[in-house]
From TrEMBL:
Keywords: Cell membrane, Cytoplasm, GTP-binding, Membrane, Nucleotide-binding, Ribosome biogenesis, RNA-binding, rRNA-binding
Subunit relationships: Monomer.
Entry keyword RNA-binding: yes
Boundaries of every KH type-2 domain copy: 206-284
InterPro entries: G_ERA_dom (IPR030388), GTP-bd (IPR006073), GTPase_Era-like (IPR005662), KH_dom-like_a/b (IPR015946), KH_dom_type_2 (IPR004044), KH_sf_prok-type (IPR009019), P-loop_NTPase (IPR027417), Small_GTP-bd (IPR005225)
Location in or out of the cell: Cytoplasm; Cell membrane
Region described as G3: 63-66
Pfam families per record: KH_2, MMR_HSR1
UniProt-listed PROSITE patterns: G_ERA (PS51713), KH_TYPE_2 (PS50823)
Name the UniProt record assigns to this protein: GTPase Era
Positions of the UniProt region annotated as G5: 154-156
Ranges for region G4: 125-128
Provenance organism: Halalkalibacter akibai (strain ATCC 43226 / DSM 21942 / CIP 109018 / JCM 9157 / 1139) (Bacillus akibai)
Length: 292
């Protein structure tokens, strides 16, 4: 973990209308530098979409649901949630589509943004689809609507200018701690659920032979570069060598079965393909040790 002087960290919210390229941007940023992302809705107010960690900084991307025009009552509520989130983050990336004419959807979001003191970057995406000359017009249109701290044209798809965007973001962050380990990208609840799913399979398949005290520690959970696969490495911790033998089974057959069943559930949980690697470790009295 990094707590060195000069290390910067902060929370950033990516907002914008559907299809402007928010997910593509996040995937591009996170895809190279860690991450697991789940599209599953979560009940927590501030869903972490991804964590970018470099030697100099850590940027935690926070989802901001409900920034669009509300269609019903829940929409009004979501709008409040969105505005609270915008207040709490350090920086807002407002992503727009360079190929789309400015319209009421953007007007609506800009009205909401006017109420926040958080610095806002205008990120003009899909510049690979327009002529350089046309970009100036797009910039001018938006500039007159709101005071953006930075205006950054990018192509999230091809990666053009994304490194510049990351630099600009880092410039706006304050010195701070590394909140999450470099290999971690989801918040704790998901890791916990994953470990519980594995534990459940162990207990179910081994019946009474393995006590409930068996523990599962998810060591790594990481999106593999340029794939949709999430790598998960986890250790099953037992107290006796005999228990280790049972969990591994004949020629590894039991562990294989545990892994296959757990993987199915985890894939459903995360909504992505999972490569699951399991180890079994004997650690005498781990419960007592853990308590001290
Ligand atoms: P979101 O709804 O804002 O998350 O948008 P997505 O990231 O899902 O992107 C919507 C569509 O726009 C997808 O088909 C993307 O491939 C496409 N897209 C996103 N960024 C770019 C870009 O920079 N250039 C081009 N040409 N297409 C893009
Ligand atoms: K969003
Ligand atoms: Mg999206």
């Amino acid at each position: 973990m990094n707590n060195q002087k000069g290390f910067k960290s902060g929370f950033v919210s990516i907002i914008g209308r559907p299809n402007v390229g928010k997910s593509t941007l996040l995937n591009h940023v996170i895809g190279q530098k860690i991450a697991i992302m789940s599209d599953k809705p979560q009940t927590t107010r501030n869903k972490i979409q991804g964590v970018y960690t470099s030697n100099e900084s850590q940027i935690v991307f926070i989802d901001t649901p409900g920034i669009h025009k509300p269609k019903h009552k829940l929409g009004d509520f979501m709008m409040k949630v969105a505005q609270n989130t915008l207040r709490e983050v350090d920086l807002v990336l407002y992503v727009v589509d360079a190929t789309e004419a400015f319209g009421s959807g953007e007007e609506f979001i800009i009205e909401k943004l006017k109420g926040t003191k958080t610095p806002i970057f205008l990120v003009i995406n899909k510049i690979d689809k327009i002529q350089p000359d046309d970009l100036l017009g797009v910039i001018e249109t938006y500039r007159t609507k709101l005071d953006f701290k930075e205006v950054v044209p990018i192509s999230a798809l091809q990666g053009n200018n994304v490194p510049t965007l990351m630099e600009q973001i880092t410039n706006y962050l304050e010195e701070g701690p590394q909140y999450y380990p470099s290999d971690q990208v989801t918040d704790h609840p998901e890791r916990f659920v994953v470990s519980e799913l594995i534990r459940e399979k162990v207990l179910h398949l081994t019946r009474e032979e393995i006590p409930h005290s068996v523990a599962v520690n998810v060591e790594q959970m990481k999106k593999r570069e340029n794939t949709d696969t999430v790598y998960i490495g986890a250790t099953i911790i037992v107290e006796r060598t005999s228990q280790k033998g049972i969990i591994i089974g004949k020629q590894g057959s039991m562990l294989k079965e545990v892994g296959q069943r757990a993987r199915g559930d985890i894939e459903a949980l995360l909504g992505s393909k999972v490569f699951l690697e399991l180890w079994v470790k004997v650690q005498k009295d781990w419960r007592n040790k853990a308590a001290t």
